Amino acid sequence: MSSRFPEVAALVLTGLLLGACERETRRFREEPPAAPATSGVRLSELEPGPTTPDIPLHNAYEDNAWAVAEGKRLYSQFNCVGCHGHGGGAIGPPLMDAEWRYGAEPENVFASIAEGRPNGMPAFGTKVGAQQIWQLAAYVRSMSGLVAKDVAPGRDDHMQKKAPELAAPDAAPRDSRSEPPPP
Amino acid sequence: MTTALLALQWSGRHSALDPFGPQAGRVHSLWQFLWIVAALVLLAVVVTLLLATFRRRGEAPEEAGPRTRSAVATAVAGTVAVLLVFLGVNFATGRAVTLPPDDALLLRITGHQWWWEVTYPARPPGNQVTTANEIHVPVGVPVVAELQSSDVIHSFWPANLVGKRDLIPGETASIWFRADSAGVYRAQCAEFCGHGHAKMALLVIAEPHESFDAWLVRQRDSARTPADSLARRGQEVFLASSCVMCHSVRGTPAGSRIGPDLTHLASRRSLAAGSIPNTRGHLAGWILDPQRIKPGARMPANALSPPDLEALLAYLESLR
Question: How many C-beta atoms surround the C-beta of residue B309 within 10 A?
Fold first, then answer.
């Protein structure tokens, strides 16, 4: 048994190394969706008829480090930085904290970017394609630690302004709509 | 034959063995010299080896020691002499190729993943010309290109004119060259820079003085609002869709600097950094599904209705 140890170890190590070869697939070219993915997103608690159940929607880009990095690039190129800073907020609300005015789920973030929100958030839906908005949504969620650490960006291409997203503490989302307004 | 000639119009020549400028000429002569010397050395070695192989056994002299020593000494001396000659010739070529002339045309090339931004600085700055993936130079005039990179290391390599020079982020490199006859020369990114590296080419269009000057003056103009009603609708489509997030057309509110400047898009020969010729069909394919043409390109797919696409194409084709 003990004489076989080096061979077994070498085999296991080779397997581990080979397993690291293909980490993920970069999805450059998406098939156009049959219907908008966010048609079920509710902004208000009020609705006619029976209450619509929340069907959670999974953003596939949140499993893909390349897509989140693309979201990070677009975040600065499309000037999200101009209002939200590097997550700390300025003119717009901070994005690296636990508080979400319009919901923390991927589809809520998508809808906020695509449709805009009152008091200043522009509607980017006509100018930015769905693929890029999903990438942005994945990146926005990575800023408060809602995306897996092996996917969240680990470094900046420029001078580091804050700790990398993969080091963001998991901020359990808090819905600020259901809370009383601050005094 | 006609197809090959047409292809040359938009893809250009690209061969270091076909020099069209003084530096490429020097490098080519150096290459020929090294090649001939290396071939002669190989020939001498092979002949000696054959002679030694087929010499009859019995003739082997008793006093082999001094003869072997002198043969080895001759071979070593010959090798060192050849290497020293190579060193001297290399050095002379390097000096002749790098020293830039004084009265050169200045242009700036910025490498992006995966395209080239080109500006011709001018005074007043309003006369500066910005274009992409294509440089025009007058024949016989030395050109100094200042090279910068906005992201990763790229390398500028117009093989028919001059050797390679790397574009390093945060630094400004420069290279000079001269095209001695009119033509379209292809420069290719020669440093792996990511997914689109192979499809990152730039055309160097060398033309006579008068047509170069006319080109430069035309490129200074802003885009005019098209007179044609279809193209005017296309301008509205352009301004209302995702194009404006990355591209600029001078003379319109579109002013983003993320992607190539499109003010004179229709005057360029190729699209997507030398990937496809600039024709209506290729342009439509590029707008609708760029990832099929150039996987990984930063341009996203655009879902446009057929009438909108038709109008947008008419507008883009009016940007001469």
Answer: 18
Residues A75, A71: Cα–Cα separation, whole Å? 6
Angle value at C-alpha B158, between B259 and B27, nearest 5 degrees: 160
Q: How far is CA B314 from CA B240, B259, B296, B307, B310, in A?
A: 16, 20, 27, 11, 6
Burial A75-94 (b: 16+ CB within 10 A, else e): bebbebeeebbbbeeeeebb
**Structure tokens, B191:** 């440093």
Pairing of strands B154-158, B165-167: antiparallel
Instruction: Quickly state the pLDDT bin for A156 (edges 50, 70, 90).
Output: confident
pLDDT per residue as tens digits for the range B79-115: 999 999 999 999 999 888 887 778 889 999 999 999 9
Nearest residue in chain A measured CA to CA from B244:
A127
A29, A127, A132: residue with CB nearest B241 = A127
Pairing of strands B201-207, B134-138: parallel
Contact call for B245 and A29, based on CB within 8 A: no
DSSP string, B258-293: SS-B-TTGGG-SEETTTTEE--HHHHHHHHH-HHHH
Q: Is A155 on the interface with B (CB under 8 A)?
A: no
B207: Cα separation from own chain's centroid: 16
The reported pTM is 0.86
Residue pointed to by tokens 């390679």 = B164
Q: How far apart are CA B285 and CA A173, in angstroms?
A: 42
- To the nearest whole angstrom, how far is the Cα of B242 from the nearest Cα of chain A? 4
pLDDT in tens, B200-220: 999 999 999 999 999 999 999
Find the residue in B nearest to A135 (Cα): B300
Q: Is the pLDDT of residue A179 over 70?
A: no
* Alpha carbons B311 and A155: distance in angstroms, whole number: 42
> In sequence order, what are the residues at sequence separation of 6 or more whose Cβ sits closer than 8 angstroms to the Cβ of residue A125?
A113, A114, A115, A116, A133
| Out of A28, A32, A77, closest to residue B258 by CB | A77
CA distances from A93 to A68, A101, B24, B105 (A): 21, 9, 57, 49
Q: Which residues of A touch B245 (CB under 8 A)?
A: 78, 127-128
Integer Cα distance of B178 and A17 in angstroms: 50
- What is the predicted pLDDT for the residue at A176? 76
CA distances for B68 relative to B51, B52, B55, B60, B73, angstroms: 15, 12, 15, 12, 9
Alpha-carbon separation of residue B297 from A122, B166, B200 (angstroms): 26, 21, 10
- Read off the pLDDT band of A30 (50, 70, 90): confident
pLDDT on residue A2: 60
